[in-house]
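Our preliminary data section would be incomplete without showing what the modeling component actually yields. Below, a chain of 354 amino acids is followed by its predicted structure, encoded as tokens that our downstream tools consume directly.
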Amino acid sequence: MSPVAAKLHGVVSEWLVDVLGLPTATGVAFVSGATVANASCLAAARDALLTKQGWDVQADGLFGAPPFTVVVGAHAHSTLSKSLGLVGLGRSRVHVVPADDQGRMRADLLPDIEGPVLACAQAGDVNTGAFDPFDAIADWVAARDGWLHVDGAFGLWALADPSRAPLVAGLDRADSWATDGHKWLNVTYDCGIAFVRRPGDLRRTFAAAADYLPPDDRFEAMHHTPQSSQRARQIEVWAVLRAVGREGVADLVSRACDVAVAIADRLRSAGFAILNDVALNQVLVRYVDGATTERLLAEIQADGRIWCGPTVWSGETAMRISVSSWQTDLDDAQYAADVILDCAARIGRHEASR
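Predicted structure:
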């Protein structure tokens, strides 16, 4: 709430919108993480859609409000579901659209329904890194006078890398976007970022009024986010962008993606199954089968030289390798692959000795 925090918010907001190529007037709010960024955007969407129908949510609540349809993809992240529940739209009261083999929403299977609608798309599936077909979804939403929200916890940063243009086509047509600063920008946790095409939609939902608050003659975070008291998260984002610039952010993205491809190529050549098209920074791996992959993961984590975690894909355990550190390079890719192969050889010897 200090003048310097307000000034830096304005500066870093312009930089972020510029780096990501979002509409010029887009409003930016810093919150505690991607979950709250999603929830903030969804709350703004809820209020905007109901305002069009003559309902004031902030005054009258949701009891008796006119309904609208919420549409999500089958591979939407669990935090999106959590956010829908948090803003009163329900975790289960949604229309789920099937996904393809990479986790992308099947736009050809969007329901033939009347508006208004709130559609939730995804930039960067947490397992595969896949991107939903934004242009097709945006067309469908526009025909129903709806709101398109994009959960882009790490995938939104692909907008900064011109080489990823085919992945992000139509992403700028959304009404809101949520992401996390702690991923590719490598700032600390507790740094989610909510973007809304029309800043007034954030203010409608979150404006606070009290006699002791300062005059409303500059940007105040409390009027655009769920919190009143909050730290100035924009300062560390400003520091990163000031240090690396537009080209540096693009390099962070492209280098991590190159590392992911290198790891995938090395493991594939050694007989591992690579389960995704490695288009971003995620590598989805299975070694022999789900049970063997679980043993490999345990060996890797006990070994301690690198870390990667488990996930479930097509009903079986898989290994998820996620690359996002600003320090990681192609040498690290070879090192990581060496460790994985070494651990795989060890569990193979263990199996043979039984």
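The longest helix spans residues 234-269. The CA atoms of residues 75 and 103 lie 6 Å apart. Preliminary results of this kind motivate Aim 1 of the renewal.
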